[in-house]
Amino acid sequence: MGIISWILLGLVAGALAKFIMPGKDPGGIIVTILIGIFGAMLGGFLGSFIGLGRVESFDLGGIFIATAGSILLLVIHRFVRKNRV
Fold it and tell me: Is 15 helix (H, G, I), strand (E, B) or coil?
């Protein structure tokens, strides 16, 4: 996938993750895209590790794996932030 595809997938996955897990998270659209991109990479790594597949294209399976990775990133972020305060 090209860089534009990763940005669009990151935007969609990050927005879905924030929609599923609403809350006070810092940042706007840029942070949402970054959460989605890193979530896609995390989801792709974990998905290929356990045999679910990889994020290779902008399709429903890729969006699902990227969103799951983004949700996992949000959970980790909130857990770390909660324990730091």
Answer: helix
Q: Are 15 and 33 in contact (CB under 8 A)?
A: no
Q: What is the pLDDT of residues 19-73, one digit of tens each?
A: 888 777 666 777 777 777 888 888 778 777 777 666 666 677 778 888 888 888 8
pTM: 0.77
Domain range annotation of the chain: 3-84
E-state strands within 1-85: none
Identify the burial level of 84 via C-beta atoms within 10 angstroms of its C-beta, where 0-12 means exposed, 13-18 middle and 19 or more buried: exposed
Q: What is the DSSP letter of 61?
A: H
Q: 43 near 65, Cβ under 8 Å?
A: yes
